[in-house]
Amino acid sequence: MNYKIETVRALSVGTVAQDVNVNYRGFLMQNLSDTATVYFREKDADGKDCTAQNGFALPPGAVQERVYTAHTLSLVASAAGADVRILLVDIG
């Protein structure tokens, strides 16, 4: 399936959860950190921030292998300053 690239967001993710509104667009995520694991989850269902215990882990240097959708992502990393890229795509 082909997807149209909309934009790329470059984020610095730390040990305090942060929200990223993707507004139900498709996305791929890349963790460019050499050492930090990045955790993510959809926040809208229960309003809870992402933690290492409730998030999906993206290890150092990893890229998601399939497109997902979400309204509001919650992201947190195992160390400060993790370089994370989110590629937003049009799935329509």
Radius of gyration: 12 Å
Largest sheet: number of strands, sense, barrel closure: 4 strands, antiparallel
Strand order of the largest sheet: 1-8-3-6
Overall form: globular
Q: Roughly how much helix do the residues carry, as a percent range?
A: under 10%
Strand/helix succession: EEEEEEEE
Beta-strand percentage range: over 45%
Q: Segments where pLDDT lies below 50 for 5+ residues? A: none
Number of beta-strand segments: 8
Give the terminus-to-terminus CA distance: 11 Å
Put simply, the count of helices is: 0
Please describe what this structure looks like.
- The chain has 92 residues and is an all-beta fold.
- It contains no helices and 8 strands.
- The protein has strands at 4-13, 18-21, 26-31, 38-42, 56-58, 68-69, 72-77, 82-90.
- The chain has a 4-stranded antiparallel sheet with strand order 1-8-3-6, with no helix packed on it.
- The radius of gyration is 12 Å and the shape is globular.
- The mean pLDDT is 96.
Outline:
The chain is mainly beta and 92 residues long. 0% of the residues lie in helices and 49% in strands. Strands 1-8-3-6 form a four-stranded antiparallel β-sheet, with no helix packed on it.
Helices, strands, pairings?
Blueprint: E1 4-13, E2 18-21, E3 26-31, E4 38-42, E5 56-58, E6 68-69, E7 72-77, E8 82-90
Antiparallel strand pairs: 1-8, 2-7, 3-6, 3-8, 4-5, 4-7
